[in-house]
Amino acid sequence: MARRLYRPQRRLSVKRIGLYVLLVAVAALFIGPFLILLSAATKPASQDVFGFPPDLIPRPPVADWFREAWTTIPYARFLVNSVIYVGITVPVYLVVSALTAYPLARIAFRGRGVFFMLFLSIMFLPGELMLIPRFLVMSELGLTDTFASVILPAILSSLGIFLLRQAFSQIPDEIVEAARVDGANEFAIFWRICVPIVAPTLAVLAILGFVSVWNSFIWPLVVLTSQSKFPIALGIAYLSGVAGTDVRGLAAGTVISLIPVVVVFLLLQKRILNSMGGAVKG
Amino acid sequence: MPGLKGRVVGQHWYTPYVFMLPGLLFYAAMFAWPAVIAIQLAFSDYDIVHPVRFTGLDNFVRLAEDPRVWIALRNSLLFVLMFLPLTVVAPLFLAMLVNLKLRAIQAFRMLYYLPVITSMVAVAVAWRYVFNREGVVNWVLGLFGAAPTDFLLDRHWALPTVVLLEAWKNAGLFMMIYLAGLQAVPSDQLEAATIDGASGWQRLLHVVVPSLRPTFAVTLVLSMLEAMRAFESVYVLTRGGPLDSTLTLGYYIWSKAFEDYDMGYASAVGLLLWAIMIVLAGFNLLVTRRRDV
């Protein structure tokens, strides 16, 4: 093999072990806090949560604190709420984004560039600054403390329109022309031909949408007053208020809230990671 | 450019607008209308209870004389200064690490990315266990003879701790952006440099960094905007304390609006933050444009 000429194998294997040690050390930095959380959530009452040196292995692991967190607050309710928020927001988000991005990529019309800039300007209207005026818009519409008030602001994002516009504009003209010759109207071309082609981009946006809705905290905190409509992240903040100094219950509740996102991530990680860099880089 | 050839069968002049109608409606209701309200409120003394009363430039006069705005502005700028090296430089090394051709490297990418997808609330809870007086960080520092510190309750340590949390949470995202950039670095240039006897550092400085210039532009803007609007982490970790040491502009706006119900004034501070962000983004755009040409 020609490659071997440049790389002495023996030194490489030592180097390789060193690199794995480094990789694992850095991994500890990133998952360490979650492991400490998990350890606090599974330690029996007889074992200290804190202390020097840190004692991370639960002996024996117990489920008490998960049960406690589950009953201290309406945990199941919060989880169901989050599923509802994700379940409604993400499909609507995908449809609206695709509909908006399509003409920006594939139809010639006056002011196309202006409309594109308009939607990109969303990037410069960050949610944090919109808290007050959106809260007032919601009260004007009579929607404060409703599921709709949480869902509506999440329907449009500049990233969604930007990525889908890219994807639509990369579809070869020949495919679309063939459909036109067959007499398909613009909506049929969009829905039956172009949308299936951009499915990978839609999948990425669905995952990103899921993560962002699942984690949303500040906006629901502003617009919701009834606990029965809280999403899970707000539930955790609520638990940290209710549980006060109960560090184990809080840890357990937090671990539960992480499970769905982590599972989805593990299942779809390849797609997320492969697309993320390219996505943000644009 | 596809689709730019004029009208075709099945298209009317209104076709693009029909497609964009839902998007435009959401834009109007959730972005344009609130933005107009935000600007109006900034010139009023609205407090939720009483009707909106316009007060001209009063809020901006008040803003100039409000010492806490200046504390918040200083903290936000400090936040940016500490945040930039942690998100613009450090993740490049992470990206180089996970760009190695090793078995199971994808698993490491995934682990480093994990904090990005978890909620700030959950991450903040986890960090309380780590940075607690009896937590792991103090234990490690204790091995070097340092006395334990309550990082989040200490006036000097609270802000750097919040910055560290934000940087840690976002590191994976910046890593992936760099990874995409690294994979576009021309490999023939790297090989040529290796054959010429360039060391790892020399290759990094003279080949990798120059070809990553557009990527740096993206990360710099993202990082600045992210730091400027830091709010959720402050809210869940310190509530702006102790003694306003973590009071950022974002948190100040929140507390004025939703704790003091001083919505008019909060909106004026919001406009200030908005202006700073636009200036920062514009400045970045200028700098990167000039270099690229």
Automatic annotation (TrEMBL), chain A:
<feature type="transmembrane region" description="Helical">
    <location>
        <begin position="20"/>
        <end position="41"/>
    </location>
</feature>
<feature type="transmembrane region" description="Helical">
    <location>
        <begin position="189"/>
        <end position="211"/>
    </location>
</feature>
<keyword id="KW-0813">Transport</keyword>
<dbReference type="InterPro" id="IPR000515">
    <property type="entry name" value="MetI-like"/>
</dbReference>
<protein>
    <submittedName>
        <fullName>Carbohydrate ABC transporter permease</fullName>
    </submittedName>
</protein>
<keyword id="KW-1003">Cell membrane</keyword>
<dbReference type="GO" id="GO:0055085">
    <property type="term" value="P:transmembrane transport"/>
</dbReference>
<comment type="similarity">
    <text>Belongs to the binding-protein-dependent transport system permease family.</text>
</comment>
<feature type="transmembrane region" description="Helical">
    <location>
        <begin position="250"/>
        <end position="268"/>
    </location>
</feature>
<keyword id="KW-1133">Transmembrane helix</keyword>
<feature type="domain" description="ABC transmembrane type-1">
    <location>
        <begin position="79"/>
        <end position="268"/>
    </location>
</feature>
<keyword id="KW-0472">Membrane</keyword>
<dbReference type="InterPro" id="IPR035906">
    <property type="entry name" value="MetI-like_sf"/>
</dbReference>
<feature type="transmembrane region" description="Helical">
    <location>
        <begin position="114"/>
        <end position="135"/>
    </location>
</feature>
<dbReference type="GO" id="GO:0005886">
    <property type="term" value="C:plasma membrane"/>
</dbReference>
<feature type="transmembrane region" description="Helical">
    <location>
        <begin position="83"/>
        <end position="102"/>
    </location>
</feature>
<keyword id="KW-0812">Transmembrane</keyword>
<feature type="transmembrane region" description="Helical">
    <location>
        <begin position="147"/>
        <end position="168"/>
    </location>
</feature>
<dbReference type="Pfam" id="PF00528">
    <property type="entry name" value="BPD_transp_1"/>
</dbReference>
UniProtKB/TrEMBL annotation, chain B:
<dbReference type="InterPro" id="IPR051393">
    <property type="entry name" value="ABC_transporter_permease"/>
</dbReference>
<feature type="domain" description="ABC transmembrane type-1">
    <location>
        <begin position="73"/>
        <end position="284"/>
    </location>
</feature>
<comment type="similarity">
    <text>Belongs to the binding-protein-dependent transport system permease family.</text>
</comment>
<dbReference type="GO" id="GO:0055085">
    <property type="term" value="P:transmembrane transport"/>
</dbReference>
<feature type="transmembrane region" description="Helical">
    <location>
        <begin position="110"/>
        <end position="130"/>
    </location>
</feature>
<dbReference type="GO" id="GO:0005886">
    <property type="term" value="C:plasma membrane"/>
</dbReference>
<feature type="transmembrane region" description="Helical">
    <location>
        <begin position="77"/>
        <end position="98"/>
    </location>
</feature>
<keyword id="KW-0812">Transmembrane</keyword>
<keyword id="KW-0472">Membrane</keyword>
<feature type="transmembrane region" description="Helical">
    <location>
        <begin position="21"/>
        <end position="43"/>
    </location>
</feature>
<feature type="transmembrane region" description="Helical">
    <location>
        <begin position="234"/>
        <end position="254"/>
    </location>
</feature>
<dbReference type="Pfam" id="PF00528">
    <property type="entry name" value="BPD_transp_1"/>
</dbReference>
<dbReference type="InterPro" id="IPR035906">
    <property type="entry name" value="MetI-like_sf"/>
</dbReference>
<dbReference type="InterPro" id="IPR000515">
    <property type="entry name" value="MetI-like"/>
</dbReference>
<keyword id="KW-0813">Transport</keyword>
<protein>
    <submittedName>
        <fullName>Sugar ABC transporter permease</fullName>
    </submittedName>
</protein>
<feature type="transmembrane region" description="Helical">
    <location>
        <begin position="266"/>
        <end position="287"/>
    </location>
</feature>
<keyword id="KW-1003">Cell membrane</keyword>
<keyword id="KW-1133">Transmembrane helix</keyword>
